[in-house]
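Exercise 7. Given the encoded structure of a 289-residue chain, write a plausible sequence.
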C-alpha cells in the first residue's frame, strides 16, 4: 500500500519492525522512521496495517503511538481484522483527540496491494471518507462505504474471513485427498480451476502446495486469530458456526505442528503428515517427477 501511494505522488513515511521491508521501501524513494510516533509526525493520514487489535492499539495509542503525533483533524485508516466492538473503541478514542477514525479492513492479498487494487470494507463518517478519497483511490480498486459508524467494516471483514478460512482449509483438504487417491495433483489443480468446485482460495493457494513453497504470504497464525474471532462472536450471538469451527481446529493443528508462521497453505502439509503422504518439494510440481 505504501508503494502504491508513493507511486501516485504522495509523501509517504514507512514504519515496520521488519528491517528488510524498511530498506526495500527506502530504495524506492520512501522515507522511513524508527517508530509510529516519528513516522506520523504532522501526517494528515495514518494507515495502520498490522495483524490484530493488540498491534493496532500499540501503533495508534502506545508510548510511541501515531495518533498523538499526527496532524490535528487527521484521519486514521485502521486495516487490521478485529472484533467490531474494538473498532468502535478505537474510533471513540481517536475522536477524543480530534482525529477521524475509519474502520477499513482490507482484502486482496499482497499482489493486489502492490497493484493498488485492494478491496476496502469501510465504515465511518462519510466526510472522513471524502477527505481522503485520493488515498483510497490509490490503494484500492473497490471501496465499500458500509455505514457511518466504526465496527460495521470490521463485521463485514469477519464474514469474509469466515469464508476465506473455510475455503483455504477445504482447498488443502481437497488437494491432499487427491494425493491420497494417487492423482496427479498438478492436473487436479488444472481441472478444478476450470470446474464448479473451484474457489478463489483454491486457485490462489494450491500453487504454493504444488511448488512446495510455504514462505508466508498469509500465515497460519492469522487464521487461528481470525477464525477465533468468528468463534467468539458466534458464541456471543448464540449463533452456531460448525464449519468455521472445524476449519479453526485445522489451523490450530497446523500451528501446533510448528507451522504457525508459515503460509496458510501449510494446512495441506499438516494433513499430508497425518496421512503419511509426500507433497511436492520446492522446484517440483509433484514428488513423482
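Solution.
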Amino acid at each position: 500500500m505504501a508503494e502504491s501511494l508513493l507511486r501516485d505522488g504522495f509523501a509517504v513515511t514507512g514504519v515496520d519492525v521488519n528491517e528488510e521491508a524498511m530498506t526495500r521501501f527506502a530504495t524506492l524513494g520512501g522515507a522511513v522512521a524508527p517508530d509510529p510516533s516519528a513516522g506520523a509526525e504532522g501526517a494528515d493520514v495514518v494507515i495502520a496495517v498490522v495483524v490484530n487489535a493488540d498491534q493496532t492499539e500499540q501503533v495508534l495509542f502506545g508510548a510511541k503511538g501515531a495518533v498523538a503525533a499526527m496532524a490535528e483533524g487527521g484521519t486514521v485508516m485502521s486495516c487490521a481484522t478485529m472484533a467490531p466492538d474494538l473498532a468502535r473503541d478505537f474510533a471513540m478514542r481517536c475522536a477524543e483527540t480530534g482525529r477521524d477514525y475509519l474502520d477499513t479492513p482490507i482484502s486482496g492479498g499482497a499482489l493486489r496491494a502492490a497493484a493498488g487494487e485492494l478491496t476496502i470494507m469501510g465504515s465511518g463518517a462519510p466526510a472522513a471518507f471524502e477527505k481522503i478519497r485520493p488515498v483510497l483511490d490509490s490503494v484500492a480498486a473497490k471501496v465499500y462505504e458500509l455505514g457511518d459508524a466504526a465496527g460495521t467494516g470490521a463485521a463485514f471483514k469477519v464474514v469474509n474471513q469466515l469464508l476465506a478460512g473455510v475455503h483455504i482449509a477445504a482447498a488443502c483438504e481437497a488437494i491432499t485427498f487427491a494425493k491420497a487417491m494417487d492423482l496427479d495433483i498438478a492436473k487436479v489443480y488444472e481441472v478444478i480451476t476450470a470446474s464448479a468446485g473451484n474457489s478463489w482460495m483454491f486457485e490462489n493457494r494450491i500453487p504454493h502446495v504444488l511448488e512446495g513453497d510455504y514462505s508466508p504470504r498469509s500465515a497460519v497464525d492469522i487464521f487461528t486469530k481470525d477464525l477465533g474471532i468468528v468463534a467468539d462472536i458466534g458464541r456471543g450471538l448464540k449463533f452456531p458456526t460448525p464449519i468455521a469451527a472445524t476449519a479453526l481446529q485445522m489451523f490450530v493443528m497446523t500451528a501446533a505442528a510448528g507451522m504457525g508462521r508459515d503460509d496458510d497453505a501449510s494446512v495441506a502439509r499438516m494433513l499430508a503428515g497425518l496421512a503419511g503422504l509426500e507433497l511436492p518439494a520446492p522446484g517440483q510440481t509433484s514428488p513423482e517427477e
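Remark. The two ends are 39 Å apart (CA to CA). Students should compare their own answers with the one above.
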